[in-house]
Amino acid sequence: MTTKDNILKRIFFDENKNWDNFVKLHPKNIREVVLEEVEKFRLCGEKEAGFSLFACDCCGEIKIVPHRCKGRFCSICATGYMQEWSRKTAESMYDMPHRHIMFTLPEGLWEIFLRRRDLLKDLMDMSVELLQDWFKKREKVEVGMMVGIHTFGATMNFNPHVHVLLTEGGLTDSGKMRHVGFIPYEMMRKRWQQKVTRMLRKELSGRDREKYKKVINKAYADNEDGFVVYGPPNKGKGGIREQVGYIGRYIRRPAISLRRILSYDGKMVTFKYFDKKEKKEKTETVEVMEFIARIIRHIPDRGFKTIRYYGLYSRRNKAKVDKILKIKGNKIPKKSWKEKVEAGTGKNPLMCPRCEVEMEYKGEVCLKSGKLVITYAKCEKARRCLEDLIGYEPPGKKKVAKGTGTERKIGNRGTGRQQIDGQIYLLAV
Questions:
Q1: Burial, 107: exposed, middle or buried (Cβ in 10 Å; 0-12, 13-18, 19+)?
Q2: In Å, what is the CA distance from 358 to each residue of 37, 381, 382?
Q3: pTM for this entry
Q4: What is the span of the domain harbouring residue 316?
Q5: How many domains, the chain?
Q6: H or E stretch at 311
Q7: Is the confidence at residue 425, as pLDDT, over 50?
């Protein structure tokens, strides 16, 4: 998908140069990881970021497949990654009832976690501690948990909350699985409130402690029943695949999908969202700089894991539990680019339109230190084609002056090369 086709890319990188202007306006306030992720997004799907070369051995037609950024900010890459992650995760989880539980925070505390992102992991750990305490001490079972932190609300506001996918019951000391369906949410709410406020009072210091002291006290006083913890039984809402897919759609994707962005005129962006309180769809129009500020705040810090596994699902315990339950851990193969496209469209993207035979992989070009470099070529003919595509000049060869009409350009040099429907032919190179 090119910049022209992707409305989010137009918002960031069109002739108005909104992203570059945003960076100039906030030179010291943008995290390094944000700059990196947005730059990866800029080049995603463009040949300038590298590509794979496929060719038909019968007629010589080639197909260039640009590399994807695989970034956390890219809506295209995130969708594909989420689908693959959901498939593999669901296969590795136990075939038993699971409960989806959400641990939330009052609105007054959201800003603290925006400014102190390092505390987001504490929220994940504390929600796990609450559940483990109950199941281990009261029910004498070890449960499995997949825990994710979610930071955005419907309007891309910063609203951190925790999603937990929990086994309904767990493993006893005797090595048997026992079902436990009851979870005391009233008690959980009060303890969740106590844990969060106690942690904030401990971790905040200096000016932050003074600034947010009243905010924390107010959040505690205004919520007599505790902070909301919610997790109804999974009745008729699908199995583990559907539950993992639901969580993945929230956590493993950017703050807004392309279909929600309705319009962009160079200055203003209009998007739609669902208001859960009023239970209806609404639209909001904001200035482009405000839109950019809202969306980039949800890019996680470098190395931060938005999904973690605990208990039976932890890396330390999973293999042991599989052995106890006599579950064979079959390695789930990763789907190739061709398989993903074929599954989504029903068509083989590598089928030659002239010969109706599948094209073969011929080579690879990658972006390294700002330069396109050939990392693999199956044969000398493929290498010459790749060199021609990236405008490679052999060492010692005199460069042709610009304006003579013979400088090297990708896919546009007229030396008898055949070109049909925008596809160059390998045999003509």
A1: exposed
A2: 34, 19, 17
A3: 0.80
A4: 75-255+298-324
A5: 2
A6: strand 307-311
A7: no
